[in-house]
Write a structure and sequence with these properties.
By secondary structure, the protein is of the alpha+beta class. The protein has one domain: Alpha-D-Glucose-1,6-Bisphosphate, Chain A, domain 4, CATH 3.30.530.20. Helix content is 30%, strand content 34%. It has three helices and seven strands. A hairpin with a 2-residue loop joins strand 6 and strand 7. Helix 1 packs across helix 2. The N and C termini lie far apart (37 Å).
Length: 151
């Protein structure tokens, strides 16, 4: 893998693993900190859609294809990264894989978020998708940290 294929963020959350797991694997809770109103529950093999609630992006619908769920340790989905152009059909493009891994550590839970597969995204939008998602995951790690500490 090249250094442009993968984004990785790690954060130690001051919350028990079960609490962090609910924030990730429960679609309603995920939506609260991520900024999306999802229309279904997460289950392996299904596609979940929802309206983005993040300011400036409310006109967009997010689509996630749930890949794998291993209770309290691993949650993964696929999506089209930075698919924000109105009227563009991204369905023929490859997706990236987003993985959440949870580990108990002293004082809480280590959350590792990895998004990989950017090298397969069409060259015309690859660098921008990587750059925007790199920034996005930095924000989302702060969002989940705040969410699990307040709920």
């Amino acid at each position: 893998m090249s250094e442009t294929d993968r984004i990785e963020k790690k954060v130690t959350l001051r919350a028990p693993r079960s609490r962090v797991w609910r924030a990730i694997a429960n679609a309603d809770q995920f939506g609260e900190w991520f900024g999306v109103k999802l229309e279904a529950v997460f289950a392996p093999g299904i596609t979940v859609r929802g309206k983005i609630t993040y300011p400036g992006y409310e006109h967009l619908t997010m689509e996630m294809m749930v890949e794998r769920i291993e209770p309290e340790t691993y949650f993964a989905y696929r999506w089209h990264p930075y698919a924000i152009q109105p009227g563009v059909d991204y369905s023929a493009e490859p997706t990236t894989l987003v993985e959440f891994r949870l580990e108990e550590v002293e004082g809480g839970t280590l959350l590792t978020i990895v998004e990989s597969g950017f090298d397969q995204i069409p060259a015309a939008r690859r660098a921008e998708a990587f750059r925007m998602n790199e920034q996005g995951w930095a924000v989302q790690t702060r969002n989940i940290e705040k969410y699990v500490s307040e709920h």
